[in-house]
Amino acid sequence: MRKTIYWIEGDGVGPEIWRAARPVIDAALAEESDMTFDWVELLAGEKARCETGSPLPEETLKILARAEVAMKGPLGTPVGGGMRSLNVTLRQGLDLYACIRPIRYFQGIESPVKHPDRVNMVIFRENTEDVYAGIEYAATTRECRRLIAFLREELGVAKIDDAAAIGLKPMTEAASKRLVRRALRYAVDHKQPSLTLVHKGNIMKFTEGAFRQWGYDVASAEFGEATCAEKKPVPGRIVVKDRIADAMFQEVLVRPENYHVIATPNLNGDYLSDALAAQVGGLGLAPGVNISDSLAFFEATHGTAPSIAGQDKANPGSVILCGALMLEHLGVPKAADRIRTSLEKAIAAKTVTIDLAGQIHDATTVGCAAFGEIVGANL
Ligand code: NAI
Questions:
Q1: C-beta 76 within 6 A of ligand 1
Q2: How many angstroms separate the alpha carbon of residue 369 from the centre of ligand 1?
Q3: Which of 234, 254, 279 finishes a domain?
Q4: Which of 39, 45, 140, 291 would suit a FRET pair with 329, their CA atoms being 20 to 30 Å apart?
Q5: Tell me, what's the pLDDT at 323?
Q6: 120 with 242, same domain?
């Protein structure tokens, strides 16, 4: 069987990490399945700008809108041109409403905490709403003054300073529920013990507080047979619980083993994903996927690393692990396990790229290409 995988090379270190990662992904697949990948490149970023004049050609968006699976390297944010960020444009244009980040520890990497191995979570972050909607008004502008006047005169808001800048935080029942639904479906399919709704509903009652309630509503209405409340645990069922965001940051540090699947609004998810990735010492190794109802779009979570681009120094681990996630998604979990084990072996042997060498005692530094070859040989 052949499967089309659309891929975007990305800017900066993009070309070199792809060159190192793709053979590993193909080789792992060949070991475990009759499936083969047809890799079809789509243009975006600097390469697209040079070849077509646009950093995000219509053709790329059109193909992605009909695609089932795609992967991308990091994209730099173009200067000028009126586009805020290619990543945000892709997420919004393709309605990639959930950002999913698995966070786990790789043995041997130095971590800032004593027991990083206790972290094994999957974060589902809402990707389309919240303060990321981009509705903001700069202080003292005409629009901002009009909005302040409206809030005062029409809605009776008394406590608002004339000099304030204003940002809006729209959150809907539909978007919150579809995110929690995906997280619950994942928890059921992967037999996870718990799902935690992380919110700041004690302060933002009608947005974050509503997210919490909508989350519980989905759990009881659609997953009633598979879930239970924290206060009334039922063996074999997923405990659905909630935590206030600030308390959750403490919890993941002191009791990470109590948390498995997290569902959370956009901003909380942004903070929590990076904090947890740092906690396991693996920011450079974190894979992720953004999903819509039709497309799973896997992406290296780091940026273009311009200061090391083109020098064979980048760590291809994030793209390699994206490949593992994709293989799991396509129903070849053994190939995914093979990749993770091979990466673990390379880390245990202490022959790693320069970023990881800084986190491993007595490590030998190798280049991006050589690291890919080592992981490939370990398969
Ligand atoms: P960055 O992730 O590119 O760099 C942060 C630090 O991590 C740097 O020291 C860099 O050298 C290092 N680093 C990143 N990836 C690495 C790798 N694979 N191997 C070894 N070291 C690595 O973040 P920064 O500097 O904030 O952003 C640079 C550009 O990337 C910006 O244009 C930004 O918009 C873009 N970006 C794109 C993302 C995406 O496409 N998903 C995500 C984050 C940033």
A1: yes
A2: 18
A3: 279
A4: 45
A5: 97
A6: yes
| Ligand 1 proximity of 305 Cβ (cutoff 6 Å) | yes
To the query of whether residue 132 is one of the catalytic residues in this protein, the response is yes
* Residue in 6, 11, 97, 200 annotated catalytic: 200
Q: Which atom of ligand 1 is nearest to the CA of 316?
A: 18
H/E stretch holding 195: strand 194-199
177 among known catalytic residues: no
59-86 pLDDT per residue, tens: 999 999 999 999 999 999 755 555 568 8
Give the model confidence (pLDDT) of 260-301 as tens digits: 999 999 999 999 999 999 999 877 788 999 999 999 999 988
Atom of ligand 1 nearest to the CA of 302: 2
Query: Alpha helices of 164-289 — where are they, by DSSP H?
Result: 173-189, 208-222, 245-254, 266-279
SS3 at position 91:
helix
CA distance 227 to 268: 24
pLDDT of residue 84: 67
Write down the pLDDT at residue 282.
Answer: 74
Give yes or no: residues 227 and 301 share one domain.
no
Query: pLDDT band at residue 118, thresholds of 50, 70 and 90?
Result: very high
Judge if 28 and 150 occupy the same domain: no
CA 305 – ligand 1 centroid, Å: 4
Q: What is the number of structural domains in the chain?
A: 3
- 193 and 95 in a common domain: no
Give the SS3 label for residue 119: coil
Residue 16: both structure tokens together: 């070199």
Residue numbers of the domain that contains 339: 1-108+282-379
Assess whether 231 carries a catalytic annotation: no
Q: Which of 304, 313, 321 to mutate for ligand 1's pocket (most ligand atoms within 8 Å of CB)? A: 304
Please check whether residues 240 and 121 belong to one and the same domain.
yes
- Vertex 69 angle, CA 64 and 72, to 5°: 75
**Protein residue with its CA nearest to atom 12 in ligand 1:** 305
Question: What is the spatial distance between Cα 91 and Cα 345, in angstroms, rounded to a whole number?
Answer: 34
- For this structure, is 270 an active site residue? yes
- Find the CATH number of the domain harbouring 15: 3.40.718.10
In short, whether 13's Cβ falls inside 6 Å of ligand 1 is yes
